[in-house]
């Protein structure tokens, strides 16, 4: 029996384990210091009341003969697909129910979608990048090319004849940089994909953080996208579902490659290798899209967005360059005084007891940059920025 | 962009759609007839009280800041892995916590495990077979060979030098035949796998239906199995989790192929392409393994097993050959009077209004056989067997 030898080409990531090790060492040497973590990519506010109520009711239904549910449709219940369809309609995107697939999260489907795509395709990812895009393709042995994001292009790379690929990953609002494509930029990508018979895998996991109404929340707001793009979305950040696990993937009926419908291939993949998301969780997810649910999650998203503003204000005062924050939970800043990413990590930890994420951990173009997130508590975010301002002004 | 062309080699399965079509047609022509479905592979009893209570409590925790849980470990929470470890210990199998991976069901992991195995491996499945084993391997382009199960070997095929493979699927108690391997038979498979450097994928989804204490519930009860087998299990049939979604996969630390640990490869696959099972569901699953949970699920399993006995008694009275039933929710019978599978389907539907599953739908060796299940209600199971006995005796 042979293993899948492509796995031997994976590089171990030491990013988060190195961070943990450094923080632990500092903590042991300085037990009296109060460390504030702004590196966190996980939500911290609890599930909203509408979701909790819906899941409790669904749990009770499952305990009663008459309302018990066994196997559901692998692609999700109609009540949830219908709610998501209406949500898309609210930002002017018309979808058919059979184009929506309920998933246990964007990360699962971003990996699993590759099952239906040939291994000979060349894949384009941006640099810096969410590492899952890279690793899932190394596992399948695909060739990977990089599209450079940097300060010059605002960390939003554009199509180029020099970097050609069959499968193109875009994430907007971006993880890790928080940068968001506008309509014109996304149109360029869509046109480029159609011209080159390429497929865009569009990660919209952070769409709910977009406040600027001129920015697209879905790639399907762009003409032609239904002919060249699959969209992945999640309730993880939208509604605090990181531990509850529900997302959705949109595979338009009009996506045809090699004369074959990707929608039909994905349906076949899901009915063969997946058994659907728990009924209870789908009921909780549906509650997110009710008026009460939307009101409650808007409060939570607003809380994180206010944290982002507090971080942005401090960076503005210090004259530090950054992207993100305005329409994203992530703030991607340029390390001051030409510090390298890990140098700035140590500087923040040792002098201000603030923990963030070194940008170089997301790719070579992240060197010299640093990611802060708005998922902490209000109190700690304020305290961290006070420390940053006071220390920075003191040393100047 | 090229699709994965292996998908074009998949054959569409019309088994369950043809059954539905035939039943609908009959129903429309005979609106007054009361049809009893014994083809169902889904559970019908609701979740037990211990599970419902645990999930309600967990849902409440998720709504409160102090007890909210975000991302959990991809491989599952320790509280659940520890409960499963103890469960294995109760039938004399010692596992390490890191050998247990919590999944959203056996079907998902049976498909996803193939990610870590090379595509050049030859795969052995039995005939008849649960179709997922076949389709997931066609999707990856692996060569598939068949091991014949038939009345002569009690639908339990044994290793043969004529049918060699690198990956061997075994399902015991079997779906669809209900046949169960004994220790000596499983030992032969384990020895064969070790000798041939093969890997056994052991589907134990129906282990909880085993009453005969001499029969193994886990392949790890067999010496050497930790060196050649991955085991898949599920709470779907054990505790009615078909719509709640939780299972577990055991990948022993001592599984080494090409000098590489399969446990480490699977951990890498799961951390990259999966984000764990909902916290709420894991709490429900853990409740299954408490004394109260075990008592309650034993009652439900006992209910289904009593249904199986009622079916077996009727078949015995009619002198119809069958396997399964005693240690399985499935009864696999030989169609009387040399009827073919679909002929017997029509015969049962038209004369007795009973619906079952034609054996030929699971492979060529299923021709002339038929699957009944014990997942119906007591009342309907009794009524169906009364109809079968009365009609059969009347025509004789």
What does this structure look like?
2 copies of one chain form a homodimer. In chain A, helix 3 (78-90) runs parallel beside helix 8 and helix 9 (291-318) runs parallel beside helix 11 (378-395). Chain A has 396 residues and is of the alpha/beta class. Chain A is 38% helix and 15% strand. In chain A, the strands form 4 sheets. A 7-stranded mixed sheet of chain A has the order 2-8-7-6-5-3-4, sandwiched between helices. Chain A has a 4-stranded antiparallel sheet with strand order 11-12-15-14. In chain A, strands 1-13 form a two-stranded parallel ribbon. Chain A has 2 domains: 5-47 and 294-395, Aspartate Aminotransferase, domain 1, CATH 3.90.1150.10; 49-292, Aspartate Aminotransferase, domain 2, CATH 3.40.640. Chains A and B meet through helix 2, helix 4, helix 5, helix 7 and helix 8 of A and helix 2, helix 4, helix 5, helix 8 and helix 9 of B.
What is the SS-derived class of chain A?
alpha/beta
Element order of chain A: H for helix, E for strand: HEHHEHEHEEHEEEEEHHHEEHEEEH
User: Could you report the average pLDDT of chain A, rounded to the nearest whole number?
Assistant: 97
> Strands across the major sheet of chain A, in which order?
2-8-7-6-5-3-4
Radius of gyration of chain A: 22 Å
First and last CA, distance of chain A: 63 Å
Beta-strand level of the residues of chain A, as a percent range? 5-15%
Q: What does the secondary structure layout of this molecule look like, with pairings?
A:
2 copies of one chain form a homodimer.
Chain A: H1 15-29, E1 36-37, H2 49-62, H3 78-90, E2 100-103, H4 106-112, E3 122-127, H5 131-140, E4 143-148, E5 167-171, H6 183-195, E6 199-203, E7 229-234, E8 247-250, E9 256-257, E10 260-261, H7 262-273, H8 279-288, H9 291-318, E11 322-324, E12 330-334, H10 341-352, E13 354-355, E14 357-358, E15 369-373, H11 378-395
Parallel strand pairs in A: 1-13, 3-4, 3-5, 5-6, 6-7
Antiparallel strand pairs in A: 2-8, 7-8, 9-10, 11-12, 12-15, 14-15
């Amino acid at each position: 029996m042979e293993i899948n030898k492509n796995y031997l080409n994976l590089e171990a990531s030491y990013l988060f384990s190195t961070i943990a090790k450094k923080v632990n060492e500092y903590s042991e040497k300085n037990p009296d210091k109060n460390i504030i973590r702004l590196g966190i990519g996980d939500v911290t506010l609890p599930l909203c009341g509408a979701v909790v109520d819906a899941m409790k009711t669904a749990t009770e239904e499952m305990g009663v003969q008459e309302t018990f549910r066994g196997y559901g449709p692998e692609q999700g219940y109609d009540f949830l697909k219908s709610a998501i369809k209406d949500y898309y309609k609210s930002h002017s995107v018309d979808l058919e129910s059979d184009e929506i697939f309920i998933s246990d999260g964007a990360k699962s489907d971003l990996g699993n979608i590759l099952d239906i795509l040939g291994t000979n395709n060349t894949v384009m990812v941006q640099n810096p990048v969410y590492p899952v895009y890279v690793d899932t393709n190394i596992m399948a042995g695909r060739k990977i090319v990089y599209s450079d994001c940097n300060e010059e292009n605002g960390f939003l790379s554009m199509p180029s004849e020099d970097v050609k690929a069959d499968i193109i990953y875009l994430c907007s609002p971006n993880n890790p940089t928080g940068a968001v494509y506008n309509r014109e930029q996304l149109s360029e990508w869509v046109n480029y994909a159609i011209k080159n018979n390429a497929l865009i895998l569009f990660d919209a996991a952070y769409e709910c953080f977009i406040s600027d109404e001129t920015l697209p929340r879905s790639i399907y707001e762009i003409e032609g996208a239904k002919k060249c793009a699959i969209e992945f979305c999640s309730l993880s950040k939208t509604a605090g579902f990181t531990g509850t696990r529900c997302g959705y993937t949109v595979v338009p009926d009009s996506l045809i490659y090699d004369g074959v419908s990707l929608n039909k291939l994905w349906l076949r993949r899901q009915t063969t290798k997946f058994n659907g998301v728990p009924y209870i969780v789908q009921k909780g997810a549906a509650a997110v899209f009710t008026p009460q649910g939307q009101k409650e999650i808007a409060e939570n998203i607003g809380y994180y967005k206010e944290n982002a503003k507090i971080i942005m204000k401090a960076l503005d005062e210090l004259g530090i360059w950054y992207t993100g924050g305005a329409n994203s939970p992530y703030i991607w800043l340029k390390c001051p005084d030409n510090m390298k990413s890990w140098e700035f990590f140590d500087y923040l930890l040792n002098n201000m007891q603030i923990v963030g994420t070194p940008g170089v951990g997301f790719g070579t173009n992240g060197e010299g940059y640093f990611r802060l997130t708005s998922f902490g508590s209000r109190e700690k975010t304020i305290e961290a920025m006070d420390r940053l301002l006071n220390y920075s002004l003191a040393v100047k």
